[in-house]
Protein: 4-hydroxybenzoyl-CoA reductase subunit alpha
Organism: Chryseobacterium indoltheticum
Amino acid sequence: MKNIPSVGKPVSRLEGHLKVTGSAKYAGEYEAPDLLYGYIVNSTITKGKIKSIDTEHVKKIEGVIEVFTHENKPSTAWFDFQYADMDAPPGIVLSH
């Protein structure tokens, strides 16, 4: 193993004092105008087959901006492979 010169040496950090005194802010503590929140709703059925998802009644609730499902989720450039549960053990891939 190579000798790493910075290991074991103190490093001065800009926010170091704030962090060690407990006064540093977390990302969620900053004010952000027009910030939206998202909630994930999991199925209550442990094994089943989704035939359809009706989101119309939820969209009518005051404050709801959008309901995302597999049918209308926005594309994400850095996440361009098909959805896979990263926490689940490996298994078979079913084509759609």
In short: The helical segments are 16-21, 56-59. Residues 44 and 65 are 24 Å apart (CA to CA).
